[in-house]
Amino acid sequence: MDPHVTEWLNLAVRWVHMITGIAWIGASFYFVWLENNLDRRTPREGLSGDLWAIHGGGIYHLEKYKLAPPKMPDNLHWFKWEAYFTWISGVTLLAIVYYLNAELYLIAPGSGIGATTAIGISVAALIAGWFIYDFLCDSALGKQPALLGALIFVLIIAAAWGFSQVFSGRAAYIHVGAIIGTIMVGNVFRIIMPGQRALVKAIEENREPDPVLPAKALLRSRHNNYFTLPVLFIMISNHFPSTYGSEYNWAILAGIAVLSVLVRHYFNTRHETQKYAWTLPAAAVGMIALAFVSAPQSTIAPQAPTAQHGGVSSSVTFETVSTVIAERCTVCHSANPTSSMFTSAPAGVMFDSPEQIRQQAARIQAQSVASEAMPLGNITQMTKAERDLLGLWIQQGAEVR
Question: Which residue range(s) make up the domain with 339?
Fold first, then answer.
């Protein structure tokens, strides 16, 4: 497909994904806040609580029924399309970015698998993820939510490790997010919405609702709530190569997920108790610890190979560096990329002049030396010796004269 068309498809679908994702997660956050802030002291008959709020120049009075009003209203607002379109746009984006350019974005260099196999693994993982999760929730573990949550966490991190063996780091992260997103929308489509329809139908038919479906829906809704912060991190993770580009990217993801869940738990419970307030400083310390342990370790020897690998030099010249960058980087990162996959420089990063190269030294260090995330899919076959050479040049001050 024409790279210009792909870029605009990416833009359009990503925009839809962002808008609907904000709507879905925003609604989730709001209703959790609403539930936690209900005044339950002296509710009217049939109510479990109410709440007064002011926003946008207006005062609102919201009431929650213990089950449902005696008569269903003519207009009852349902919250489902935000979830459905977030998933639909997300899977479409997965196909546009990772399936149409599998060799570039999806497959890990040296994994030995082809595009068809990689895409097959991707699709199978999304399907298997939902069915395994659904089976566990409907099993006896469903009555032990803490144990169930721990097992789900272990399986998701195991999937992250497995993906990191065959997919690029950023693709591994995105696929963990895709599995979680599929679980979340599956919960809405298969459990939460049917439970709500059954409740409304029972009220309309003047019969006692089945308590099993609402209980299942509550469990799945709770899972969706705790999934939100890890998913939000994964959505922005491709901007941070020190996470997905690390050798232990799956462990970093596990750490961030744990911290996210702790923070989410505090906000879910802070209206009733402050005993989980420790999670906020703990999360801050945890992020600092992750930044420390993921810091790249310098492995560059005092004598670094030259670009031609024919000798050694303790001082790397810019001429040598520019040769490496011209051969390995400007294929894509140029005002006029020679790669057929790009019509313009990705992220606007160009290495056409010495000054541009010097200005991007920190990014080169992060993306090509420390994490080896670039070149994408290592399509230009940058060697370890060349990465070390670039790192030594940056250590020496990134001089261009």
Answer: 304-395
